[in-house]
Design goal:
A hairpin with a 6-residue loop joins β5 and β6 (83-85). The strands form 3 sheets. The chain has a two-stranded antiparallel sheet. The chain has a two-stranded antiparallel ribbon with strand order 3-4. A two-stranded antiparallel ribbon has the order 5-6. Helices cover 34% and strands 16% of the residues. By secondary structure, it is of the alpha+beta class. It is rod-shaped. Bound molecules: zinc ion (2 copies). Residues 77, 79-80, 82, 93-95, 98 line the site of one zinc ion (ZN).
Length: 110
């Protein structure tokens, strides 16, 4: 929800991107769209708009960034070959057990 929208004495002051668009020259619109984040139907004045609100746009951005971080931490254990979600981006093994085994193998074992 846009915040801080109110009518000032000298007219309507655009405070958000949406409000600005609403005041801009409208050509061809509005377009009925489905918000790519919350799935709500909304009317956009530009066909390129994907989100119903600034909030959804922002949340979608945060979500995308979170996903990318998660992807970066998706690793394959170098010892057992199992896929795992690493706590660190430079993790190589799914568990300390595999790490120890791999290390033992590396130094020639017992
Ligand atoms: Zn939305
Ligand atoms: Zn492992």
């Amino acid at each position: 929800m846009p915040v801080g929208l109110r009518k000032d004495s000298d007219g309507y002051v655009p405070r958000t991107e949406e409000d600005y668009e609403r005041r801009s020259d409208i050509s061809g619109g509005p377009y009925k769209k489905e918000c790519a984040f919350c799935g709500e139907m909304f009317y956009a004045y530009y066909p390129t708009r994907k989100y119903c609100s600034y909030r959804c746009k922002n949340d979608a951005y945060i979500e995308r960034r979170r996903q990318r971080k998660k992807e970066a931490r998706k690793k394959t254990c170098q010892y057992c070959g199992e896929e795992f979600q690493a706590g660190r981006v430079d993790a190589k093994y799914c568990s300390s057990k595999c790490r120890v085994y791999a290390w033992r193998n590396d130094v020639g074992g017992e």
